[in-house]
Structures are given as C-alpha cells and as structure tokens.
Amino acid sequence: xxxxxxxxxxxxxxxxxxxxxxxxxxxxxxxxxxxxxxxxxxxxxxxxxxxxxxxxxxxxxxxxxxxxxxxxxxxxxxxxxxxxxxxxxxxxxxxxxxxxxxxxxxxxxxxxxxxxxxxxxxxxxxxxxxxxxxxxxxxxxxxxxxxxxxxxxxxxxxxxxxxxxxxxxxxxxxxxxxxxxxxxxxxxxxxxxxxxxxxxxxxxxxxxxxxxxxxxxxxxxxxxxxxxxxxxxxxxxxxxxxxxxxxxxxxxxxxxxxxxxxxxxxxxxxxxxxxxxxxxxxxxxxxxxxxxxxxxxxxxxxxxxxxxxxxxxxxxxxxxxxxxxxxxxxxxxxxxxxxxxxxxxxxxxxxxxxxxxxxxxxxxxxxxxxxxxxxxxxxxxxxxxxxxxxxxxxxxxxxxxxxxxxxxxxxxxxxxxxxxxxxxxxxxxxxxxxxxxxxxxxxxxxxxxxxxxxxxxxxxxxxxxxxxxxxxxxxxxxxxxxxxxxxxxxxxxxxxxxxxxxxxxxxxxxxxxxxxxxxxxxxxxxxxxxxxxxxxxxxxxxxxxxxxxxxxxxxxxxxxxxxxxxxxxxxxxxxxxxxxxxxxxxxxxxxxxxxxxxxxxxxxxxxxxxxxxxxxxxxxxxxxxxxxxxxxxxxxxxxxxxxxxxxxxxxxxxxxxxxxxxxxxxxxxxxxxxxxxxxxxxxxxxxxxxxxxxxxxxxxxxxxxxxxxxxxxxxxxxxxxxxxxxxxxxxxxxxxxxxxxxxxxxxxxxxx
Length: 752
Known about the structure:
The chain is of the alpha/beta class. The longest helix is centred in the first third of the chain and has 33 residues, at about 90-120.
C-alpha cells in the first residue's frame, strides 16, 4: 500500500475536505455578522489566521484518529499485508503538487489580505487614486538676496495656485498639503504618489529692487519635465506673470489653451509695498510661531494703511480673529469680512470668514450660503470645507458635513485642521482604523507638525491603548526636543502611566511637567491623573489654592478645559463648593463665546445644546450634576441631568470606548444602572481599559459595588493589565527616563 492509499484509508482527505468547507462557511458568516455585532476588523483577521493554523492540526488528527458512531477512536495500523509503501508514485506527486499549489494560493491570498488590513490600520501609505488633470503647486524656492523675505515667494506660489483653481478644468491641491514638502528631498514621483496628483509645478522667485524673476517648470507624475519658462519683469507686472503661468500650465495639462483670467476687481493693488505686507501677514499666519498673531495683524494693518482699497488684508484680519481671539471678537471678524467683500465681492477667503462668523452668531443658513460661495469661487480653499462643519451640524445636515470633510481631504489631504476634525469624527463614530490611518499620515511627512503626536496620543487614550499613547508622547519628545517640555511629555505621560496603575512613573513625569511652570502659577493635572492616584498627591490642595487666586484674571486658568479639570480636582480634594464655582465659570466662558453680545447670567442649557455639546461641555455638566448632588442642590442636578439625557439621546452608536464610558456616567447620574452596564459592556467589546479611572472616581463610588459592575470592572482590569505589561516590557528594554534627561541636558547646555 502506498502513502496515497494510506491517506485514503485513514480518511485524512475526507476530514480535510470537511475542514475546508466548514472553515469557509464560518468565515463567510463571520464576515457578515462581525460588523453587525460591532466587533473590530481584527477579530475577523484572527479568525482567518486561526483557520489557516488549524488546517495542519486537522490533518495530523485525521492521520491518528477517526470519528465513528462509537466516538473518536485511534486509527488502527495497517496489517502486514497492507504494509505502507512510503515511496511516492508519479500520480502521488501530481496530487500533492496540486494540493500544495491550492494551499499556497490560499495562504498567500490570506496573508495578502491580512497585510492590507495591517497597513490600513497602521497608516502605511496605500496607493492614492489620482484624478485626471490633478496638480500640486509646490512652494517656489526663494532666491532673494534677503533671506527674511521668503514670504514673497510663498505668496506668489499661492496666488498662482489660486489662479489655477479658478480655471475649472483642473483639480488643484490646496497649498497646505503641497507646502508640507517644502524642505523635502523626496523625488517628484514620491511626492506625486503621496499627494495623489498627476502633475507638479515647481519654481523659484528672485526679487531685486523693482524687478522680479520667476522660473516655473511643470513635471508629470514620474518627474519628467513637460514645460519650463522664465519671466523677467518689473514688480508691477507680478499679477500678469501669475496669469501667464496659470494659462501655460493649464494648456499643457488639459491640451486646451485657457485664456488668463483676470482677478476680480479690488483683488489687485498697484501698491507693491501693500501687496508685500499682505503676503508677509499671510506668512506669519501660516507659520503659527509664538508671535504669529501680533506679527500677522501688524502686517495686515500695514497693508491696509498703504492701500485702504486692497481687499485681501481685511479678509486676512477676519481669518486671523476667527482663528485666535474668538469670543467677544466674533463681531469684529464679521466686520472685517464684510469690509473685504465691499471692496471685492468675489474674494473667496472673505466669504469663508463671513460664513463662519454668521454661523457662530446664530445664522447658520446664511453662514452656509457664504461658505458654499467661497468654495464655488475657489475649490482649493480647504479652510472653507472645514468651516462648513459648524453650520451643517447646526442645521442637522450631518451627512453633508461628513461629505464636505471628505471633499476637503481630497483636495487637501494633509490639511491639519481637516485631519484633526476627521480623526475626531471617525474615532467618535467607532472607526478606529480610519482614524489611526489619517493620524499616522501626518507622521510620514518630512517635518511632522508639532501637534501630530498629541493627536495620536488622544486617539489612543480614547480607545484604552495606553501603551501606544505613551509611545506617541515619547516620539513627540524625540522629534521636538528643542522645544520646552510640552504638556504631552509631562502631563500626558503622567496621565497615561497613571491610567495603567504605574503611580511612581506618573508622579515622576508630572513633576517634570510642574518644573516647567512658574512657582506662582502651578499646573493642574487632568482628571484621570488624580483619579488614578485616588486622593491625589500631597501638594494638590496647595496648588489648587494658588490657582484659585488667578481665576477671573484672564490668566492661564481662565479657560474652560482647565476650569473643568480644576473643578474635578476640587471635588477630589473634598471641596465640592469650590468645584461648583470653577465648573460654573467654565460653562460661563463657553456661553460668552456662544453669545458674546448678550451672555446669560446663569447656566443656559438650551444655549449649550443649540451651539454644540462638545465632550468638554458634557464633562462640565456631568461633574456639576455630581457636585450639586453632594451639596444638596436637587434643582441643579435635575437641570444638568436633563441636558445630559438630551445629549445621550443624540448619540448614535457605535462609538468609541471613551464616549461609551461618558454615556455610562450620564446613565449613572440619571439612576439608569442597567443602561450604564450596557454601555460599559459595549466599551469592553472595543477594548475599554480605564479601570483606575472609574474605581477612583467618586461619581462612580456607590454604583460600582454591585456584582454585575464588579464583573465588568474585572474585564476592564484584565485589559488594563495587558496594557501595563506592554508598557513595563518597553521600559525594561529601553530606559526613556535616561534618554529624556540626556536630551534635556544637551538642550540646556546649548542654551547657555
């Protein structure tokens, strides 16, 4: 008897067939049912891996055992007459080769699928579908003899970009994304792939006195030059040069001569000093340095002084105010936008700024109309897509808001505001993979923005992935060691270490953070830091007393999020009355921003709900409800809970673990213990691990004593312990404290 016959006798092939069919059916059912049950994609991936790994085990089982009506019995060895001849015959080779081929195809295909999912989850760059006639305008190199005037070349670049976007036949990438490759040494082909465009426009600008020389060259997606030219003109001809370049680029890409389009009346100026001052203001605005607000405002005002009829500086001031001052200055921003439109009715940025201010000031319909007009005039104006989010949400057009975010990312895939908003949106709605993919997109840039790793930290914290959050904070310090110790390094690491129960590490990092503050202005740790430490460190009360003296002074603590966390700290320290004072002031500041002309005297929950119930507003209301209960203010509890219940009703599941935990707390405050348990069960299915945050939170103290809650917390503790083990293993392998101290020491020496 040969091997083939022995395999048949032992019914190995029959078992293999049953296994393959059964595994295929299970995977098909799982592919349909897992998303409906809210299970993550990793669950299906692990099931796939288990099915593959189980196949050889099934074959081994089939060789030694057989399933009979009498049960599972060991297969008897062949008799002497049936002695197995292990020599393979030609037919055996053919069959085995076929089986190996099929098996290899399945395994390779499966691994390919797994690899694809892993890359998606980890943010690995996937091929971007490139639109026809799509182009990115890279920042033109500044060849000016004065290196401080780089703003001029950037301004020229953006004006050319704007001209191209108005031609209609081109898909033009916004400047935010293309400018991310300013100092990159990547090849044009690589940049083209990352930006998802078929063409790149490069160039240089040299300004000498009253003359300017601009060179421009058009490259295809492989880096081959299609066209180049040089323009030597007087500075007064700059707008004509921009039109010429836009026309030539369009004709090369679309194969149709597109006549240079005139800018709308009022956009241009004959005063080149005013134009330069405006470009300088834009450069300061985009740089976001420590002095960007004052420097940008100064430059815009100078441009207006030099030419009061030049519209763009007014739009610049409107955008500046919208992005910085807010609150009582919303009306000022609207005034600047309206003045710009008086001078130039077709200025896109002015329409966008007017749209946002209208929406904030209670007119979302007209605000949305203005923003749509801005996009119509300049389809590459990414900020307009971002700002549509507010009026669309106010009008209940949530699906359109999501579509506008996606359209904005299509034309500006590296826009920081759009990325942050979309990451928050995807995470809130339970799409961790997409959120992480977008967040990690920023880490692959030649110079990742300062906030990138903070965004990753927040995302990982929301999903209970504290080990990844700690790694993001460490990477942040490595990338930005030249900066002062940022909140993410000190307070962030403290909070994350505390979240996994490593209190000694938490205290070390928070002391690092405290050391960066003035002795008279102590920092306040976020609530989960105190929660993880139980009663908090000994210096907590003293720091709170110092901070309390600064409340109302428009100092560092007079902002809603610090008032929220400080209020929580007061409650934790046993002073709910002071906690209420801080929390109510935090809400008052929100209300002042929402209704600057007529802010309410007390808490107006209808106003809060009409604006948008941000996570922080919900936290403020939750803690107020608890503090009111501690002080016997039943009416305050009732009003706060009514607001929270309305917010709970508006939340569409699935969502992320952090939001589910927040909904559970709202249910606790509303005496809905069954609802609280259900929210935590759903959070556990998503990997929720905030065990210490609940067990040390006084708002949960009574509720979690029941056996059902204890069982849920035991699962959360198990998840937390796994995170802690990862952190401890990473710290054992690499001493980041030593690395941190070395970097900081070197930085201090450099400063000396």
